[in-house]
Amino acid sequence: MSFTSRLRIVDAVTLQYNITHGQSDRPIAIAVSLSLHGLAVVAALMAFGPVQLATDDSAAITIYVEPDAAPIATPTPVLVPEPEPEAETATTRDYAPSPPEELPPLDFSVPSPPPEPAQPAPRPAQPKPEPKRTAPTVAQPAPAERASSPLAASAPAANVPAVVAPGWNALLAAWLAANRRYPEEARRRSEEGEVTVRFTVAHDGRVSEAAVLKGSGFAALDAAALRLLQGATLPAPGIEATRTVRIRFRLND
To answer: Does domain 168-249 have CATH number 3.30.1150.10?
Structure first.
């Protein structure tokens, strides 16, 4: 029996009850009708099983929430500190050409030997008395001997060697310091050393010859030291002189 048929039966029973009992029992009839309708619903549920609500799973709404844009921060003014005065610092390495260490001028003058004591002039021999018959002019060679005695006394002075002009050694050292140059090739290679050079200078200051006595171990430094003196014109010493100098090449640290 269907659910609708059952409801109709319930309505018919309710109507028959109303006709039989009249209007006085109307509230009771309503209660009975509601009870019967409820029983009919329960019976229908038990007959047909639980009612499933239809759902639509074929569609889904996906919501993507975009992150909020990061707020643009107002740039904070950066206070730039005033630059502090830089302290004076020594350079780590100065590759500018620098003259070698200046050595104190050496005194190359040859000291004069003390003059030999003058030999006393020989005393002329006294003429012996002769007879009156002889002429007294026989003893006249004595004045000639006295005249030759000053020459004999001055003869040792001719052996005194000549010396260079006063202050020439200081002038030579100043000239070397002003004209020496650090070779560029040796400076790039950081080559340092000391060169000993021997040279001969004429009385007017022209260098006649120069040679390296002791090298530095670097060809560029030895050549620079030799170039400094070869063919150079130095302060005039007044006499021909031979000197030995040491030229030191060193880079400033």
So the answer is: yes
